[in-house]
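We were asked to recover a plausible sequence for a given structure. The inputs and outputs are reproduced exactly as logged, with field labels preserved.

PROBLEM: sequence recovery
POSITIONS: 334
GIVEN STRUCTURE:
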């Protein structure tokens, strides 16, 4: 994995140095500022306190950085118009399983590299694709760094929806992938309707004011996509999430780790592929090199988005379980 990262980094620096390769495509060519959909931090949000808490987060602290963002379940931003945005309806999927993104100008190349790595993490085992904003796109994720916290709205909202990555804190591939998975339409694993079968929530270690961070969602609001509960999910909270005393708040009934923020789990990939109607065709007549992702074109439609014409067939450079041939670059920018 380190070697792979090195290769990608070297390739990137060669391309960047040559000027022949624009890392984020057209995203930054547009000087017009996006009109972002209004978001709601809530009445008691303390930007200074959250900003400090996020900035002082350390790996190995036993908490995930996004849990500190001060919003509903830590990092779920609600829309000021629509309120709570818990979305499982396919109409809020990204059309053609392609999330359109736009980067706030002024992002450093290091920050861009992290965003790219996060997208790569998601693409490695799924059919999800990302493409830079083009003039005329109406629905897209606007990746900004100028606000407090690491947060996202859930699912495609319609319009320009912000994903915030607090500078000098949230630019870590796993946490960025976590936020992008929210934008793809995923909620936190611990809010699954059936979570009490898998974890014990120890309220004695939670401030009463934070009880609502552990609310379960209904079956109308949450789907396991037929894949089931996943302790290993990138969307699972840590053991001491919202602890008032450092003691465990979420205790798995099995002897497992929870709260990893390094990678997208196997079940995360499967859920993503179910949600976006994708299947991996490894059984190819002419050999494994032609295996590819297929997409059955029911994964959402948009009255806004300029990209239509789903052929039901994605140009599958994504190979499950890793991409050893530099196809990442093709996927990202092709
Ligand atoms: Zn989250």
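RECOVERED SEQUENCE:
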């Amino acid at each position: 994995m380190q070697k792979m990262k090195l290769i990608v980094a070297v390739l990137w620096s060669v391309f960047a140095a040559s000027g022949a390769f624009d890392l984020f495509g057209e995203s930054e060519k547009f000087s017009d500022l996006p009109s972002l959909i209004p978001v709601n931090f809530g009445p008691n949000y303390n930007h200074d306190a959250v900003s400090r808490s996020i900035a002082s987060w350390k790996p190995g602290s036993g908490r995930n950085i996004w849990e500190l963002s001060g919003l509903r379940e830590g990092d779920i931003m609600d829309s000021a118009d629509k309120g709570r945005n818990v979305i499982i309806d396919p109409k809020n999927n990204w059309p053609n399983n392609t999330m359109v993104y736009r980067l706030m100008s002024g992002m450093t190349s290091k920050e861009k590299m992290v965003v790219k790595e996060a997208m790569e993490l998601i693409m490695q085992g799924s059919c999800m694709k990302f493409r830079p904003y083009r003039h005329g796109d109406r629905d897209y994720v606007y990746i900004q760094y100028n606000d407090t916290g690491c947060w996202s709205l859930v699912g495609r909202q319609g319009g320009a929806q912000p994903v915030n990555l607090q500078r000098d804190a949230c630019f870590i591939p796993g946490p960025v992938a976590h936020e992008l998975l929210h934008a793809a339409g995923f909620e936190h694993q611990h809010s699954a309707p059936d979570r009490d079968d898998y974890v014990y929530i120890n309220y004695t270690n939670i401030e009463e004011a934070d009880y609502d961070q552990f609310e379960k969602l209904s079956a109308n609001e949450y789907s396991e996509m037929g894949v089931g509960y996943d302790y290993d999910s990138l969307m699972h909270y840590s053991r001491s999430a919202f602890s008032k005393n450092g003691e465990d708040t979420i205790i798995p009934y099995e002897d497992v780790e929870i709260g990893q923020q390094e990678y997208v789990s196997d079940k995360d990939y499967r859920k993503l592929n179910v949600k976006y109607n994708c299947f991996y065709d490894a059984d190819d007549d002419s050999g494994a090199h032609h295996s590819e992702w297929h997409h059955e074109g029911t994964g959402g439609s948009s009255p806004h988005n300029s990209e239509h014409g789903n052929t039901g067939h994605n140009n599958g450079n994504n190979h499950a379980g890793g991409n050893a041939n530099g196809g990442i670059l093709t996927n990202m920018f092709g």
